[in-house]
């Protein structure tokens, strides 16, 4: 399998070459040259695999359609080591439960950091360790986080050979629970840097370091952001697992509703659907930051500036620009790299928007690709959390609540699966506002706030961060 760039760059690459890379050299995102097709017989085989051997075996089957530069036995071992009951809490890994009639919930958030990013990041950690060892290389991951992504990356990379993580976060601005999750890690390869500033200061530092090409090369600086194809690929697996749990025969269809920010999660659903998984609709649920809902309603994609990016109670969806959206648009415009380059490198980058409303391709988003969308606000979130708890005895987090709210607007005859992207304990303040009680806390997190913390506090100064990286790499 070869991978191409959405902006038409000539050279195609194999999986392990793009694994450790970010964007393609022309600024595009990587996609496979074609989506492997799952016919009825193959889907039946996958159904049997999940039933008899479990999620890790299913993951191996799907991944091996896209990865041909890791020996099968090694890839199988990587999947087996990643998707365990020990790490994800259940044998099903992503159990599907009923909420209300044919409205179902697929739990993706029982990993180490209680958010769906663990599903992909845990695999990435093992793939990185494997590939770096094979090449005899090392990697220093530098990141900025306001909570979720940073902790998922740290829990994926902790103790991994050949990898160090330097994670900046705004000092004193994460919730006590989030700080405890990250700062209690005592692994030597994990470095928490609390920056005296806001999240944007952290991001600026990461950008400045990455733009110092000599430093970046000397210290092998890398990232783990959501445009990484391996992360997306790992997510394709749970669309299959959700479908197979919700159906008894391949003649049945299901729909998915996905709480969305950077379009990474639902883009994996798009890939699964393109492979032939019988998905009726893919419903994008946004919060008040509704650039994606606006696009699917109108055909206009208009990114927002910082002043119009709202801080909401589903903060992991607070985006102004959806970094994975280009992958879907590339397919939508008939995989035309020049056109995609024009839409993103000219339209989005220079004018902050593009307009496909008059383009015949826009109709395909719904008609051919099954997309629909909706939006949920703080008031909707509170009402949905309350209703779900009172009528069904189920406590859901704020992001999942956005999904449930929007899913109810798109119910059809087929099962509708809402992806549960986090657990309520991570967003305690909003749960209290909705339910007037504390959220349930999984036992393994009792007392986490009292554990010793490993973090250095630093001014928002690029040179100090560079000095820390250089010092750490010396020893
Ligand atoms: C990251 C995240 C999302 C958004 O996922 P995207 O892939 O960016 O669309 C939704 N919910 C939670 C809890 C998240 O952490």
In short:
With 475 residues, the chain is an alpha/beta fold. Helix content is 45%, strand content 15%. The chain has a domain at 96-113 and 229-435: Rossmann fold (3-Layer(aba) Sandwich).
Which radius of gyration do the C-alpha atoms yield? 21 Å
Strand content: 15-25%
Globally, the shape reads: globular
The largest pleated sheet is described as: 6 strands, mixed
How far apart, in Å, are the first and last alpha carbons? 40 Å
Classification by helices and strands: alpha/beta
| CATH top level label of the domain at 96-113 and 229-435 | Alpha Beta
Number of helices: 20
Share in helix: 40-55%
Could you give the count of β-strands? 15
Overall average residue pLDDT: 95
Low-pLDDT runs of 5+ residues are none
Strand order, sheet with most strands? 3-4-14-9-10-13
For the record, the CATH architecture of the domain at 96-113 and 229-435 stands as: 3-Layer(aba) Sandwich
Distinct small-molecule ligands in the complex: pyridoxal-5'-phosphate
CATH topology of the domain at 96-113 and 229-435: Rossmann fold
Domain Threonine synthase N-terminal: 3-83
Protein name: Threonine synthase
Family: Belongs to the threonine synthase family.
Pfam families: PALP, THR4_C, Thr_synth_N
């Amino acid at each position: 399998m070869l991978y191409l760039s959405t902006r038409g760059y000539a050279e195609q690459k194999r999986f392990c070459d793009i694994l450790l890379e970010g964007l393609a050299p022309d600024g595009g995102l990587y996609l496979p040259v074609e989506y492997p097709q799952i016919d009825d017989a193959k889907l039946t085989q996958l159904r049997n695999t999940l039933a008899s051997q479990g999620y890790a075996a299913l993951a191996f089957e799907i991944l091996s359609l896209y990865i041909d530069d890791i020996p099968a036995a090694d890839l199988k071992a990587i999947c087996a080591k990643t998707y365990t009951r020990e790490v994800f809490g259940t044998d099903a890994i992503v159990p599907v439960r009923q909420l209300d009639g044919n409205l179902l919930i697929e739990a993706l958030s029982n990993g180490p950091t209680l958010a769906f990013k663990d599903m992909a990041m845990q695999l990435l950690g093992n793939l990185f360790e494997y590939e770096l060892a094979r090449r005899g290389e090392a990697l220093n991951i530098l990141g900025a986080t306001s909570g979720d992504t940073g902790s998922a990356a740290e829990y994926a990379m902790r103790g991994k050979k050949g990898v160090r993580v330097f994670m900046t976060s705004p000092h004193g601005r994460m919730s006590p629970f989030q700080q405890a999750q990250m700062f209690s890690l005592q692994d030597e390869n994990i470095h928490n840097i609390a920056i005296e500033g806001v999240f944007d200061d952290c991001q600026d530092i990461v950008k400045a370091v990455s733009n110092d090409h000599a430093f970046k090369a000397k210290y092998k600086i890398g990232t783990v952001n959501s445009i990484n194809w391996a992360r997306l690929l790992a997510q394709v697996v749970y669309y299959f697992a959700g479908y197979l749990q919700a159906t008894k025969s391949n003649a049945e269809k299901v729909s998915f509703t996905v709480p969305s920010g950077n379009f990474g999660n639902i883009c994996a659903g798009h890939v699964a659907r393109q492979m032939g998984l019988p998905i009726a609709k893919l419903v994008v649920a946004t919060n008040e930051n509704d650039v994606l809902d606006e696009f699917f309603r109108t055909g206009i994609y208009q990114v927002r500036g910082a002043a119009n990016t709202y801080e909401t109670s589903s903060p992991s969806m607070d985006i102004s620009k959806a970094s994975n959206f280009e992958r879907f648009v590339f397919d939508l415009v008939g995989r035309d790299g020049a056109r995609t380059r024009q839409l993103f490198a000219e339209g989005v980058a220079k004018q902050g928007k593009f307009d496909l409303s008059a383009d015949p391709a826009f109709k395909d988003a719904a008609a051919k690709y099954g997309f629909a969308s909706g939006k949920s606000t703080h008031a909707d979130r509170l009402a949905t959390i309350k209703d779900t708890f009172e009528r069904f005895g189920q406590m859901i987090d704020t992001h999942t609540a956005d999904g449930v709210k929007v899913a109810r607007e798109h119910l059809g005859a087929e099962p509708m699966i809402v992806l549960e992207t986090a657990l309520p304990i991570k967003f305690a303040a909003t749960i209290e506002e909705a339910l007037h009680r504390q959220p349930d806390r999984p036992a393994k997190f009792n007392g986490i706030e009292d554990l010793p913390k490993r973090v250095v506090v630093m001014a928002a100064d690029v040179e100090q961060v560079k000095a820390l990286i250089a010092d750490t790499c010396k020893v």
